[in-house]
Amino acid sequence: MKLSTNSRGLTAAFAAVLVCAPALPAAARVALDVDRFAPLIREANSPAAVPGSYIVVLSGTPSAELTRATNRSLASTYDVTVRREFHASVRGFSAAMSAEQAEQLAADPRVGFVQQNQALKATQDDPPWGLDRTDQRTLPLDEKFESDTTASTVHAYVIDTGIYAEHQDFGGRASIGTDTLGDGQNGVDCIGHGSHVAGTIAGTQYGVAKAAKVVGVRVLDCSGNGTTETVLAGVDWVTANAVKPAVANMSLGGSSDPALDAAVKASVASGISYAVAAGNESADACGVSPSREPSAVTVGATDRSDTRANFSNYGPCVDLFGPGVDIESVGITGPEATETKSGTSMATPHVAGAIALYLADNPEATPEQVSTALLEAATSDAVQDPGTGSPNKLLYLVPPTPVTPPVTPPVTPTPTPTPTPTETPVVTPSTTPVGTPSHTLRSPDGSVADRPIPRT
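The structure assignment produced for this chain is given below.
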Protein backbone atom coordinates (compact mmCIF):
# COMPACT_ATOMS: atom_id res chain seq x y z
CA MET A 1 0.00 0.00 0.00
CA LYS A 2 0.98 3.62 -0.23
CA LEU A 3 -0.33 7.05 0.43
CA SER A 4 -1.67 8.29 -2.87
CA THR A 5 0.41 11.43 -3.23
CA ASN A 6 2.81 12.09 -6.09
CA SER A 7 6.50 13.02 -5.95
CA ARG A 8 5.71 16.03 -3.79
CA GLY A 9 3.56 13.86 -1.60
CA LEU A 10 3.89 10.38 -0.26
CA THR A 11 5.21 7.27 -1.98
CA ALA A 12 5.62 3.71 -0.84
CA ALA A 13 8.67 1.55 -0.30
CA PHE A 14 8.43 -2.05 0.76
CA ALA A 15 10.75 -4.81 1.94
CA ALA A 16 10.42 -8.12 0.11
CA VAL A 17 9.85 -11.30 2.06
CA LEU A 18 9.69 -14.84 0.69
CA VAL A 19 7.63 -17.19 2.82
CA CYS A 20 8.58 -20.84 2.54
CA ALA A 21 5.85 -23.47 2.74
CA PRO A 22 6.84 -26.50 4.80
CA ALA A 23 4.97 -29.78 4.56
CA LEU A 24 1.46 -29.71 6.01
CA PRO A 25 -0.31 -32.28 8.16
CA ALA A 26 -2.43 -34.70 6.12
CA ALA A 27 -5.70 -33.09 7.22
CA ALA A 28 -4.53 -29.69 6.06
CA ARG A 29 -3.40 -31.07 2.69
CA VAL A 30 -6.81 -32.59 2.08
CA ALA A 31 -8.59 -29.32 2.85
CA LEU A 32 -6.28 -27.24 0.69
CA ASP A 33 -6.38 -29.60 -2.29
CA VAL A 34 -9.91 -28.33 -2.99
CA ASP A 35 -8.25 -25.50 -4.93
CA ARG A 36 -4.60 -26.34 -5.20
CA PHE A 37 -4.01 -23.52 -7.64
CA ALA A 38 -5.16 -20.87 -5.16
CA PRO A 39 -2.42 -19.26 -3.07
CA LEU A 40 -2.14 -20.92 0.32
CA ILE A 41 -1.46 -17.67 2.12
CA ARG A 42 -2.69 -14.59 0.31
CA GLU A 43 -0.07 -11.97 -0.56
CA ALA A 44 2.73 -14.13 0.89
CA ASN A 45 4.98 -13.29 -2.05
CA SER A 46 4.10 -9.62 -2.18
CA PRO A 47 7.06 -7.23 -1.98
CA ALA A 48 5.14 -5.57 0.86
CA ALA A 49 4.83 -8.73 3.00
CA VAL A 50 5.74 -8.26 6.69
CA PRO A 51 7.79 -11.20 8.01
CA GLY A 52 6.01 -13.38 10.56
CA SER A 53 2.85 -11.24 10.66
CA TYR A 54 -0.57 -12.41 9.46
CA ILE A 55 -4.23 -11.44 9.25
CA VAL A 56 -6.71 -14.27 9.88
CA VAL A 57 -10.16 -13.61 8.41
CA LEU A 58 -12.98 -15.85 9.63
CA SER A 59 -15.59 -17.44 7.41
CA GLY A 60 -18.94 -15.67 7.23
CA THR A 61 -20.04 -12.79 9.43
CA PRO A 62 -20.30 -14.14 12.99
CA SER A 63 -21.43 -11.90 15.83
CA ALA A 64 -18.83 -10.03 17.84
CA GLU A 65 -19.25 -12.50 20.70
CA LEU A 66 -18.83 -15.52 18.44
CA THR A 67 -15.89 -13.84 16.71
CA ARG A 68 -14.09 -13.42 20.03
CA ALA A 69 -14.78 -17.02 20.99
CA THR A 70 -13.60 -18.34 17.63
CA ASN A 71 -10.49 -16.18 17.76
CA ARG A 72 -9.61 -17.56 21.18
CA SER A 73 -10.23 -21.13 20.07
CA LEU A 74 -8.11 -20.79 16.94
CA ALA A 75 -5.31 -19.09 18.85
CA SER A 76 -5.30 -21.90 21.39
CA THR A 77 -5.47 -24.68 18.79
CA TYR A 78 -2.59 -23.34 16.71
CA ASP A 79 -0.59 -21.82 19.58
CA VAL A 80 -0.57 -18.22 18.41
CA THR A 81 -1.05 -15.01 20.37
CA VAL A 82 -3.80 -12.69 19.17
CA ARG A 83 -2.42 -9.20 18.69
CA ARG A 84 -5.54 -7.38 17.55
CA GLU A 85 -9.15 -8.47 16.97
CA PHE A 86 -11.57 -7.28 14.27
CA HIS A 87 -15.32 -7.45 14.90
CA ALA A 88 -17.07 -4.87 12.73
CA SER A 89 -15.71 -4.92 9.18
CA VAL A 90 -13.99 -8.25 8.60
CA ARG A 91 -14.13 -10.78 11.45
CA GLY A 92 -10.89 -12.22 12.70
CA PHE A 93 -7.56 -11.25 14.20
CA SER A 94 -3.94 -10.41 13.55
CA ALA A 95 -1.07 -12.35 15.05
CA ALA A 96 2.64 -13.05 14.84
CA MET A 97 3.21 -16.63 13.74
CA SER A 98 5.31 -18.88 11.56
CA ALA A 99 4.46 -19.67 7.96
CA GLU A 100 3.60 -23.22 9.02
CA GLN A 101 1.11 -21.98 11.63
CA ALA A 102 -0.41 -19.66 9.05
CA GLU A 103 -0.85 -22.55 6.62
CA GLN A 104 -2.49 -24.69 9.29
CA LEU A 105 -4.88 -21.88 10.17
CA ALA A 106 -5.75 -21.37 6.51
CA ALA A 107 -6.84 -25.02 6.34
CA ASP A 108 -9.23 -24.71 9.28
CA PRO A 109 -12.87 -24.64 8.08
CA ARG A 110 -13.62 -21.77 10.46
CA VAL A 111 -11.17 -19.57 8.56
CA GLY A 112 -12.09 -17.78 5.35
CA PHE A 113 -8.50 -16.96 4.45
CA VAL A 114 -5.14 -15.99 5.91
CA GLN A 115 -3.20 -13.07 4.49
CA GLN A 116 0.32 -12.00 5.27
CA ASN A 117 0.36 -8.52 6.76
CA GLN A 118 1.43 -5.85 4.27
CA ALA A 119 3.89 -3.07 5.04
CA LEU A 120 3.38 0.57 4.10
CA LYS A 121 6.12 3.17 4.11
CA ALA A 122 5.53 6.70 2.97
CA THR A 123 7.93 9.62 2.57
CA GLN A 124 7.02 13.23 2.03
CA ASP A 125 8.76 13.77 -1.23
CA ASP A 126 -9.66 33.48 -4.53
CA PRO A 127 -11.01 29.84 -3.38
CA PRO A 128 -8.54 27.06 -4.02
CA TRP A 129 -8.81 26.14 -7.67
CA GLY A 130 -9.97 22.62 -6.86
CA LEU A 131 -13.09 23.89 -5.09
CA ASP A 132 -13.70 26.37 -7.88
CA ARG A 133 -13.66 23.53 -10.41
CA THR A 134 -16.24 21.39 -8.62
CA ASP A 135 -19.16 23.80 -8.98
CA GLN A 136 -18.96 24.63 -12.68
CA ARG A 137 -19.27 22.51 -15.80
CA THR A 138 -16.67 24.13 -18.04
CA LEU A 139 -13.48 26.17 -17.97
CA PRO A 140 -12.33 28.88 -17.46
CA LEU A 141 -12.65 29.05 -13.69
CA ASP A 142 -14.85 31.87 -12.41
CA GLU A 143 -13.03 32.26 -9.06
CA LYS A 144 -16.21 31.63 -7.11
CA PHE A 145 -17.53 28.74 -5.04
CA GLU A 146 -20.78 28.19 -3.23
CA SER A 147 -22.77 25.24 -2.00
CA ASP A 148 -26.38 25.42 -0.91
CA THR A 149 -25.51 23.38 2.17
CA THR A 150 -22.46 23.03 4.39
CA ALA A 151 -23.13 19.48 5.64
CA SER A 152 -23.23 20.32 9.34
CA THR A 153 -25.14 17.08 10.01
CA VAL A 154 -22.54 14.83 8.35
CA HIS A 155 -19.45 13.16 9.85
CA ALA A 156 -16.37 12.63 7.67
CA TYR A 157 -13.81 10.02 8.78
CA VAL A 158 -10.26 10.49 7.49
CA ILE A 159 -8.37 7.17 7.64
CA ASP A 160 -4.85 8.51 7.30
CA THR A 161 -1.94 9.95 9.30
CA GLY A 162 -4.10 11.61 11.95
CA ILE A 163 -5.33 15.17 12.20
CA TYR A 164 -4.14 18.53 13.53
CA ALA A 165 -7.50 19.32 15.10
CA GLU A 166 -6.41 22.72 16.44
CA HIS A 167 -5.98 24.24 12.99
CA GLN A 168 -8.25 27.27 12.74
CA ASP A 169 -9.69 26.18 9.39
CA PHE A 170 -11.55 23.37 11.16
CA GLY A 171 -13.34 25.86 13.41
CA GLY A 172 -13.54 23.43 16.32
CA ARG A 173 -15.26 20.75 14.20
CA ALA A 174 -12.28 18.39 14.03
CA SER A 175 -11.65 15.60 16.52
CA ILE A 176 -9.53 12.50 16.99
CA GLY A 177 -11.42 9.24 16.64
CA THR A 178 -8.80 6.58 17.27
CA ASP A 179 -5.12 5.81 16.83
CA THR A 180 -4.32 2.22 15.88
CA LEU A 181 -0.54 2.59 16.22
CA GLY A 182 0.01 2.90 19.98
CA ASP A 183 3.15 5.01 19.55
CA GLY A 184 2.09 7.73 21.98
CA GLN A 185 1.04 10.20 19.29
CA ASN A 186 -2.61 9.76 20.29
CA GLY A 187 -4.09 10.58 16.91
CA VAL A 188 -2.20 13.83 16.28
CA ASP A 189 -0.91 14.23 12.73
CA CYS A 190 2.87 14.53 12.62
CA ILE A 191 3.43 14.33 8.87
CA GLY A 192 0.62 16.52 7.49
CA HIS A 193 -1.02 14.26 4.95
CA GLY A 194 -4.20 13.49 6.91
CA SER A 195 -4.74 17.10 7.95
CA HIS A 196 -4.36 18.32 4.37
CA VAL A 197 -6.93 15.75 3.24
CA ALA A 198 -9.30 16.70 6.07
CA GLY A 199 -9.00 20.37 5.18
CA THR A 200 -10.12 19.70 1.61
CA ILE A 201 -13.12 17.78 2.89
CA ALA A 202 -14.31 20.14 5.60
CA GLY A 203 -12.12 23.21 6.07
CA THR A 204 -13.89 26.54 6.44
CA GLN A 205 -11.76 28.06 3.68
CA TYR A 206 -10.28 25.05 1.90
CA GLY A 207 -13.09 22.52 2.25
CA VAL A 208 -15.96 21.41 0.05
CA ALA A 209 -18.32 20.64 2.96
CA LYS A 210 -17.52 23.62 5.15
CA ALA A 211 -19.44 22.65 8.28
CA ALA A 212 -19.04 18.86 8.30
CA LYS A 213 -17.59 17.28 11.42
CA VAL A 214 -14.26 15.70 10.55
CA VAL A 215 -12.76 12.82 12.55
CA GLY A 216 -9.15 11.70 12.28
CA VAL A 217 -8.50 7.96 12.27
CA ARG A 218 -4.74 7.55 12.57
CA VAL A 219 -3.40 4.39 10.93
CA LEU A 220 -0.01 5.63 9.64
CA ASP A 221 2.86 6.87 11.80
CA CYS A 222 5.10 9.94 11.71
CA SER A 223 7.13 8.44 8.87
CA GLY A 224 4.01 7.42 7.00
CA ASN A 225 4.48 3.77 7.97
CA GLY A 226 1.62 1.37 8.56
CA THR A 227 0.42 -2.11 7.69
CA THR A 228 -2.71 -3.91 6.66
CA GLU A 229 -3.21 -4.54 10.37
CA THR A 230 -3.20 -0.87 11.39
CA VAL A 231 -5.32 0.28 8.44
CA LEU A 232 -7.75 -2.60 8.89
CA ALA A 233 -8.11 -1.66 12.55
CA GLY A 234 -9.00 1.88 11.48
CA VAL A 235 -11.66 0.70 9.05
CA ASP A 236 -12.99 -1.63 11.74
CA TRP A 237 -13.24 1.28 14.21
CA VAL A 238 -15.08 3.46 11.69
CA THR A 239 -17.50 0.64 10.90
CA ALA A 240 -18.32 0.16 14.57
CA ASN A 241 -18.39 3.80 15.65
CA ALA A 242 -19.39 6.04 12.75
CA VAL A 243 -22.12 8.58 13.41
CA LYS A 244 -24.32 8.59 10.33
CA PRO A 245 -24.81 9.99 7.81
CA ALA A 246 -21.10 9.42 7.27
CA VAL A 247 -18.42 9.34 4.62
CA ALA A 248 -14.93 7.87 4.95
CA ASN A 249 -11.86 9.00 3.01
CA MET A 250 -8.92 6.69 2.26
CA SER A 251 -6.15 8.58 0.48
CA LEU A 252 -3.86 5.58 0.70
CA GLY A 253 -3.44 2.27 -1.02
CA GLY A 254 -1.05 -0.33 -2.31
CA SER A 255 -0.78 -3.59 -4.11
CA SER A 256 -3.38 -6.33 -3.94
CA ASP A 257 -4.75 -6.62 -0.39
CA PRO A 258 -7.81 -8.89 -0.10
CA ALA A 259 -8.26 -8.29 3.63
CA LEU A 260 -8.37 -4.53 3.19
CA ASP A 261 -10.74 -4.84 0.24
CA ALA A 262 -13.04 -7.06 2.30
CA ALA A 263 -13.00 -4.62 5.21
CA VAL A 264 -13.93 -1.66 3.01
CA LYS A 265 -16.68 -3.69 1.34
CA ALA A 266 -18.15 -4.63 4.73
CA SER A 267 -17.91 -1.05 5.98
CA VAL A 268 -19.77 0.21 2.91
CA ALA A 269 -22.39 -2.49 3.47
CA SER A 270 -22.89 -1.08 6.97
CA GLY A 271 -24.04 2.22 5.42
CA ILE A 272 -20.85 4.30 5.17
CA SER A 273 -19.82 5.77 1.81
CA TYR A 274 -16.11 5.50 0.97
CA ALA A 275 -14.01 7.67 -1.32
CA VAL A 276 -10.65 6.03 -2.11
CA ALA A 277 -7.62 7.16 -4.07
CA ALA A 278 -6.86 5.51 -7.42
CA GLY A 279 -3.10 5.67 -6.83
CA ASN A 280 -0.17 7.47 -8.41
CA GLU A 281 1.68 4.88 -10.50
CA SER A 282 0.19 6.00 -13.84
CA ALA A 283 -1.04 2.42 -14.10
CA ASP A 284 -4.25 0.41 -13.96
CA ALA A 285 -6.06 1.14 -10.70
CA CYS A 286 -7.49 -2.39 -10.75
CA GLY A 287 -4.12 -3.59 -9.45
CA VAL A 288 -4.33 -1.45 -6.31
CA SER A 289 -6.19 -1.90 -3.02
CA PRO A 290 -8.59 -0.57 -1.93
CA SER A 291 -9.12 1.33 -5.21
CA ARG A 292 -10.14 -1.91 -6.93
CA GLU A 293 -13.01 -2.47 -4.45
CA PRO A 294 -16.19 -1.81 -6.49
CA SER A 295 -18.34 -0.62 -3.58
CA ALA A 296 -16.05 2.35 -2.92
CA VAL A 297 -15.88 5.47 -5.11
CA THR A 298 -12.41 5.42 -6.70
CA VAL A 299 -10.94 8.79 -7.66
CA GLY A 300 -8.31 9.75 -10.22
CA ALA A 301 -6.64 13.18 -10.44
CA THR A 302 -6.77 16.02 -12.97
CA ASP A 303 -4.88 19.30 -13.29
CA ARG A 304 -6.08 22.85 -13.94
CA SER A 305 -6.60 22.12 -17.64
CA ASP A 306 -8.83 19.10 -16.90
CA THR A 307 -6.09 16.76 -18.11
CA ARG A 308 -5.47 13.54 -16.21
CA ALA A 309 -2.44 14.13 -14.01
CA ASN A 310 0.62 12.33 -15.36
CA PHE A 311 0.89 10.33 -12.14
CA SER A 312 -2.77 9.35 -11.80
CA ASN A 313 -3.85 5.75 -12.15
CA TYR A 314 -6.61 5.00 -14.62
CA GLY A 315 -8.77 2.18 -15.95
CA PRO A 316 -12.19 0.64 -15.36
CA CYS A 317 -11.78 0.59 -11.58
CA VAL A 318 -11.71 4.41 -11.56
CA ASP A 319 -15.17 5.91 -11.06
CA LEU A 320 -14.42 9.58 -11.74
CA PHE A 321 -11.72 12.23 -11.62
CA GLY A 322 -11.28 15.26 -9.39
CA PRO A 323 -8.80 18.13 -8.92
CA GLY A 324 -5.50 16.74 -7.64
CA VAL A 325 -2.60 18.96 -8.72
CA ASP A 326 -1.25 21.87 -6.66
CA ILE A 327 -4.05 21.72 -4.09
CA GLU A 328 -3.74 24.16 -1.20
CA SER A 329 -5.09 23.07 2.18
CA VAL A 330 -4.33 22.79 5.88
CA GLY A 331 -0.74 22.50 7.14
CA ILE A 332 0.46 21.33 10.55
CA THR A 333 3.20 23.78 11.51
CA GLY A 334 0.72 26.16 13.13
CA PRO A 335 -2.98 26.97 13.42
CA GLU A 336 -2.87 29.08 10.23
CA ALA A 337 -0.39 26.96 8.27
CA THR A 338 -1.09 25.85 4.71
CA GLU A 339 0.54 23.41 2.31
CA THR A 340 0.22 22.72 -1.39
CA LYS A 341 0.23 19.07 -2.42
CA SER A 342 -0.51 16.96 -5.48
CA GLY A 343 -1.79 13.42 -5.87
CA THR A 344 -4.88 11.29 -6.09
CA SER A 345 -4.77 11.73 -2.31
CA MET A 346 -5.76 15.33 -2.93
CA ALA A 347 -8.44 14.52 -5.52
CA THR A 348 -10.18 12.01 -3.26
CA PRO A 349 -11.22 14.43 -0.48
CA HIS A 350 -12.92 16.68 -3.05
CA VAL A 351 -15.17 13.70 -3.76
CA ALA A 352 -15.58 12.89 -0.06
CA GLY A 353 -16.69 16.49 0.50
CA ALA A 354 -19.17 16.23 -2.37
CA ILE A 355 -20.55 13.05 -0.81
CA ALA A 356 -20.95 14.88 2.50
CA LEU A 357 -22.97 17.62 0.79
CA TYR A 358 -25.22 15.04 -0.86
CA LEU A 359 -25.75 13.22 2.44
CA ALA A 360 -26.72 16.49 4.10
CA ASP A 361 -29.61 16.79 1.64
CA ASN A 362 -30.29 13.04 1.53
CA PRO A 363 -29.40 11.63 4.97
CA GLU A 364 -31.13 8.29 4.37
CA ALA A 365 -29.34 7.59 1.07
CA THR A 366 -27.46 4.31 0.84
CA PRO A 367 -23.84 4.26 -0.36
CA GLU A 368 -25.04 2.81 -3.66
CA GLN A 369 -27.52 5.67 -4.09
CA VAL A 370 -24.81 8.18 -3.20
CA SER A 371 -22.46 6.73 -5.81
CA THR A 372 -25.17 6.72 -8.45
CA ALA A 373 -26.08 10.37 -7.79
CA LEU A 374 -22.42 11.41 -7.83
CA LEU A 375 -21.67 9.68 -11.13
CA GLU A 376 -24.86 10.89 -12.78
CA ALA A 377 -24.03 14.48 -11.82
CA ALA A 378 -20.40 14.28 -13.00
CA THR A 379 -19.45 16.22 -16.12
CA SER A 380 -18.98 13.84 -19.04
CA ASP A 381 -16.19 14.10 -21.64
CA ALA A 382 -14.36 16.89 -19.82
CA VAL A 383 -11.17 14.97 -18.95
CA GLN A 384 -8.33 15.09 -21.45
CA ASP A 385 -6.49 11.76 -21.81
CA PRO A 386 -8.40 9.90 -19.07
CA GLY A 387 -6.41 6.74 -19.76
CA THR A 388 -7.30 3.36 -21.22
CA GLY A 389 -10.57 2.04 -19.86
CA SER A 390 -11.29 5.06 -17.68
CA PRO A 391 -14.72 6.67 -17.52
CA ASN A 392 -14.56 10.24 -18.79
CA LYS A 393 -16.25 11.80 -15.80
CA LEU A 394 -15.17 14.85 -13.82
CA LEU A 395 -16.51 15.64 -10.36
CA TYR A 396 -19.39 18.12 -10.24
CA LEU A 397 -21.32 18.86 -7.07
CA VAL A 398 -24.67 17.13 -7.15
CA PRO A 399 -27.36 19.78 -7.59
CA PRO A 400 -29.72 19.86 -4.63
CA THR A 401 -32.83 17.77 -5.00
CA PRO A 402 -35.79 20.13 -5.37
CA VAL A 403 -37.91 20.01 -2.27
CA THR A 404 -41.48 19.02 -3.00
CA PRO A 405 -43.56 21.00 -0.56
CA PRO A 406 -45.91 18.81 1.43
CA VAL A 407 -49.50 19.89 0.94
CA THR A 408 -52.01 19.57 3.71
CA PRO A 409 -55.15 18.00 2.22
CA PRO A 410 -58.31 20.11 2.40
CA VAL A 411 -60.37 19.52 5.50
CA THR A 412 -63.67 17.86 4.67
CA PRO A 413 -66.55 20.00 5.98
CA THR A 414 -68.22 18.30 8.89
CA PRO A 415 -71.88 19.28 9.26
CA THR A 416 -73.29 19.39 12.73
CA PRO A 417 -75.89 16.61 13.09
CA THR A 418 -79.51 17.75 12.95
CA PRO A 419 -81.16 17.15 16.33
CA THR A 420 -84.42 15.26 16.71
CA PRO A 421 -87.27 17.66 15.93
CA THR A 422 -88.69 19.35 19.00
CA GLU A 423 -90.03 22.72 19.71
CA THR A 424 -86.40 23.89 19.49
CA PRO A 425 -85.60 25.21 16.02
CA VAL A 426 -83.47 22.97 13.82
CA VAL A 427 -79.78 23.84 14.10
CA THR A 428 -78.26 24.89 10.80
CA PRO A 429 -75.22 22.70 10.04
CA SER A 430 -71.94 24.57 10.49
CA THR A 431 -69.01 24.01 8.15
CA THR A 432 -65.41 23.91 9.21
CA PRO A 433 -63.42 26.12 6.78
CA VAL A 434 -61.32 24.28 4.26
CA GLY A 435 -57.69 24.22 5.41
CA THR A 436 -55.14 26.16 3.42
CA PRO A 437 -52.42 23.95 2.00
CA SER A 438 -49.11 24.51 3.79
CA HIS A 439 -45.80 24.59 2.01
CA THR A 440 -42.37 23.82 3.41
CA LEU A 441 -39.70 25.98 1.85
CA ARG A 442 -35.99 25.23 2.10
CA SER A 443 -33.56 28.10 2.59
CA PRO A 444 -29.76 28.18 2.66
CA ASP A 445 -28.20 27.35 6.00
CA GLY A 446 -26.31 30.62 6.07
CA SER A 447 -22.77 29.41 5.46
CA VAL A 448 -21.10 31.24 2.58
CA ALA A 449 -17.75 30.55 0.95
CA ASP A 450 -15.18 33.22 0.27
CA ARG A 451 -16.76 34.42 -2.96
CA PRO A 452 -20.23 33.04 -3.35
CA ILE A 453 -22.28 32.60 -6.49
CA PRO A 454 -25.62 30.90 -6.96
CA ARG A 455 -25.21 27.19 -7.54
CA THR A 456 -26.90 25.62 -10.52
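Interim note for the steering committee: The longest strand covers residues 49-58. Confidence is low (pLDDT under 50) at residues 7-38, 121-125, 402-407, 418-456.
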